[in-house]
Amino acid sequence: MSMLASLLIIAFSLVLLVYWFRYSCILLLRNHSELVDSPRAIVDNRFRVVEVQERLRTAEPLDPLHASLQRDYQVLIYLFEHAAGLELAAFEDRLLVIDYKVMQWWYRLTKTAAPDQARRALTEMASVLAILVGKIDQRAGLYNEV
Questions:
Q1: Residue 13 falls within a domain, yes or no?
Q2: CA angle, residues 103, 25, 120, in degrees to nearest 5
Q3: Structural domain boundaries enclosing 116
Q4: What is residue 113's three-state secondary structure?
Q5: Among 28, 104, 113, 146, which residue is least crowded by beta carbons within 10 Å?
Q6: Could you say which DSSP state residue 144 is in?
């Protein structure tokens, strides 16, 4: 009987952890979406995040969009690892990277069976990358003060 109680506690704890993770990620994306969508926001044109976000609103095939996001992700991670002063020190930044990886996994799982879910996963991945690109721009001093 104590084995069953332990399994129930573990299962309930895992469900709460997943709920906390998703809720935290959604809050981070909502809070930062105002910064990314503001007219002062500069999204580096070397990244294709904005283009992918626009193309996700159409009925385009998802695999090329996923490939563009993956390329941007690889460049961002390289910059965070090798550029001075551009580390992922904040817990929020690391949480966003984990969210990107979870959504990438979700995209791969749903792209054939549930294309709408896959499109939502790519949309969230693009939002995460837009936030991280914005943070790089801020840290590199690319924002002009108005």
A1: no
A2: 40
A3: 24-140
A4: coil
A5: 146
A6: P
Tokens 């904005």 appear where?
Answer: 50
The answer to whether residues 85 and 139 touch, using CB atoms and an 8 Å cutoff, is yes
Query: Burial level of 96, CB count in 10 A (0-12/13-18/19+)?
Result: buried
Neighbours of 43 (CB within 10 A): 18
Quick check: 29 and 131 in contact, CB under 8 A? yes
Task: Please state the pTM of the whole predicted model.
Answer: 0.84
Question: CA-CA distance, 135 to 125, in Å (whole number)?
Answer: 15
Coil, strand or helix at 123: helix
Instruction: Output the tens digit of pLDDT for each of the chain's 146 residues.
Output: 789 999 999 999 999 999 999 999 999 999 887 655 544 454 567 788 888 989 999 888 999 999 999 999 999 888 888 876 667 778 898 999 999 999 999 999 999 999 999 999 999 999 999 998 888 777 666 544 44
Q: How many CA atoms lie within 13 A of 121 on its CB side?
A: 22
